[in-house]
Amino acid sequence: xxxxxxxxxxxxxxxxxxxxxxxxxxxxxxxxxxxxxxxxxxxxxxxxxxxxxxxxxxxxxxxxxxxxxxxxxxxxxxxxxxxxxxxxxxxxxxxxxxxxxxxxxxxxxxxxxxxxxxxxxxxxxxxxxxxxxxxxxxxxxxxxxxxxxxxxxxxxxxxxxxxxxxxxxxxxxxxxxxxxxxxxxxxxxxxxxxxxxxxxxxxxxxxxxxxxxxxxxxxxxxxxxxxxxxxxxxxxxxxxxxxxxxxxxxxxxxxxxxxxxxxxxxxxxxxxxxxxxxxxxxxxxxxxxxxxxxxxxxxxxxxxxxxxxxxxxxxxxxxxxxxxxxxxxxxxxxxxxxxxxxxxxxxxxxxxxxxxxxxxxxxxxxxxxxxxxxxxxxxxxxxxxxxxxxxxxxxxxxxxxxxxxxxxxxxxxxxxxxxxxxxxxxxxxxxxxxxxxxxxxxxxxxxxxxxxxxxxxxxxxxxxxxxxxxxxxxxxxxxxxxxxxxxxxxxxxxxxxxxxxxxxxxxxxxxxxxxxxxxxxxxxxxxxxxxxxxxxxxxxxxxxxxxxxxxxxxxxxxxxxxxxxxxxxxxxxxxxxxxxxxxxxxxxxxx
Length: 591
Fold this sequence. Notes:
single chain, alpha+beta, 15 helices, 27 strands, elongated
């Protein structure tokens, strides 16, 4: 390499040049580190949870969600929405999977079946826009239920004139036309008692539930699946008029306003179809074998959520329900053991056991929603966050109050996720001069984002873009955004010993027409180092080489910039610790 030549630039001028190098903002021509509160969208300010009016939050933030597909809007949902009305003696759904358990152990069954505290209308008022609705036909009447226990009357009883809960739900939906509510309907009905007569009474009962929902809510309010889809935007739903998506999990009718079950997926975020009765029996036979439910349930559920949110492997044409609720397969044995041990009417803090677990779990879930999940591009992976005890209040681990509705507000705020401090953001300037929106760079090892420090970027002749950056662990990583838009993924560049020597210092990248990537760095002692990646993907033998100053021994670097030249040589500009700028060139011969 030729001798380094000093350039007489003032300290102020040099700083301006270096600041431009660090903050230039195009992903294909430069990178920037986000401030703590910077939004990943360049045009939408982050949603303030405290400013949300939860009874009409969709209409309130239509500027954020208006052009977003419904299955990409992050919204709260109610798990087993109708279970709020279950009591120890509210009855048993004879056809339910856990009817036997509910008859033999009504207190235990109720304790593990009540997942909400507040009517369905109150759940809608607190922000829920997805209702997991389970109905049982018992003695000719329709009730809500969960597991085995019955809840309250849902549809009107014409024989007695008693009104069902559907009336206040339908009224709320009519009064809030700007709020899109998804109802996922499951039913439990008596089996066909005379299959030889040509009628299927079980199928008729299931269809009846769907028809009654349509009649009570009003079919004009129900979304037509021949005209709308999960990928239809909020504005398209509003312009069409209907504000209810009814999902018939039994596919029992041909009504265009009853959507098939396969439009929803859970991506294994919840374990279902376990034998409650077997779990209870095991707990009663071995009451001392239960494990600490709160910690185990939360840890398991949150890990499963993290795993699901870390990757977007779902069907982009479906709704996605992320299970934010507790895992009943883990909670039930502990619930049974505690109820038996502490008396059959045992309710921690006056709450049914599942509500008690949900409250303690939700406190931990809220920390995720307000922290690492908010600091990620969660909206691309999350749709419906299904909750137990959606209107809970309580206290965080630090003692601060959690108000009713705060869980919902934290979920809704994730429609404008913010970038965590140190997140690498990028934007692309297209050939026509237009800019694509700012986005977080994908992270290493499956993480949604890459957070770190010093970074640099260079475009290659073949259309690839190379990135080099230090992570928060001060390890140096290399990534490639291929010309087709896909990513290679972040790979370590150095050994621990080399990274320790570099210590997260300045980086500069440049490409040359022959496809070589040149990397310059300054170590913690001020030494300027160089390595390269050949066009075949291999790295320079021996790793980093030192760039000297012609034997003068006076140059210690603070920062560096580099550019490639048409003849495959490179020009290197160095800002020294003495305040001087120096220029040198690496010739095509390697000197």
